Amino acid sequence: MMLWNQKIGPNGKPLSPSSRIHQKIQRVVTAIIACSPFLWVFSSYSNRSIALTSSLRDPNRGKGGHPIVECSILKQFQICSHRLLEPPDNTVAGSMAAMTAFWNRGIRCFDIDSVTTKDSQLIAAHPEILGPKISPNSKSFDPASFTLEDMRSLGADEEGFPVLITVLEHYASLINSDETTKIPYFSENSQYVRGSLFHLDLKGPNLTPKHLDHIQDKLLELGIQNNVAICAGVLKDGDVGPGFDMLKHLGRNASRGSMCLVLRDREERDRNVAMVHDVVNNNEAIRSYASSYKFEKEFFSQLRGMPIITWTIDNEETLTYSIESGAAGVVTNHPMKLQKMLQDWIKGNQCVGG
Questions:
Q1: Per-residue pLDDT reduced to its tens digit, 277-324
Q2: What is the rounded distance in angstroms from the CA atom of residue 352 to the CA atom of residue 74?
Q3: pLDDT digit string (tens) for 6-26?
Q4: HEC string of the chain?
């Protein structure tokens, strides 16, 4: 086998400096050709990330990183509290006091997860938050292995981990206290959010159609069916989702309530605009998108007509990118921080139209 830095030619004589350089060039070309299939795969996977990074650093953006958009857009843009984290007024994260504190500060959009217990109870919490509380020494946590009573005894108290019905009832009381938020969050052919919005993400392998029917009955009873959207994505072949196909169960009956279509940038089907439009056209209950912000702007521009809520947005760069992409709002772990950014941009005349 020939060495990379070989200095002796096949005739046994030393190679000249120019011959050695030529030899190295040949080896570089050979290595590139051998690796070309792998480079192609890497290139096709990374192109979207490179394009996104370029968009996030748009040189045409305003000084300080703020988006160049009309002030009217910023004024109606929604900052959505993710899981009621980082609430103001020293309230407990996940609690009804936290929701009230956000509401009083002008946050009228929420993104709440719910897990299903072993005894079919729904708790408003995400497994990532509930797990360390219930099973701190376990590498994996399955809410379906614990009853509600088990979780309460292990530290998931009612204040920070309320049952879902309690959350919905409290949300309804806040909506009913303000006439401006009682209107539906959606309107025909509008990409912006009108009334208050609550995106509900149901999780758990033992979730059943009865759970969804009960939730929709409760939303109708509370009169907030037009301010809550149950989120679901298109299932892959052979996938059963969180217990069953929620989109198939709820999507075609808009009279019972609303849904938001979840879009994940790593899913090939979700990146296909034609397929997304087909899903929306065949499911009239879909009235908003819950989308990863990592799609390119061109993708978002083709989804106009319904509110797009991007996730999870925790800094100025991704907030600006979401606004410029046409999003109606963002889900964030830092609602007050991002709300202040918007307010500062408006007050500082860092938008068009005053």
A1: 999 999 999 999 999 999 999 999 999 789 999 999 999 999 999 999
A2: 10
A3: 455 544 555 565 666 656 666
A4: CCCCCCCECCCCCECCHHHHHHHHHHHHHHHHHHHHHHHHHHHHHHHHHHHHHHHHCCCCCCHHHCCCCEHHHHHHCEEEEECCCCCCCCCCCCCHHHHHHHHHCCCCEEEEEEEECCCCCEECCCHHHHHHHHCCCCCCCCHHHCCHHHHHHCCCCCCCCCEHHHHHHHHHHHHCCCHHHCCCCCCCCCCCCCCCEEEEEEECCCCCHHHHHHHHHHHHHHCCCCCEEEEECCCCCCCCCCCCCHHHHHCCCHHHCEEEEEECCCCCCCCCHHHHHHHHHCCCCEEEEEEECCCCHHHHHCCCCCCEEEECCCCHHHHHHHHHCCCCEEEECCHHHHHHHHHHHHHCCCCECC
Q: How many residues does the chain have?
A: 354
Confidence at residue 105, expressed as pLDDT on a 0 to 100 scale: 97
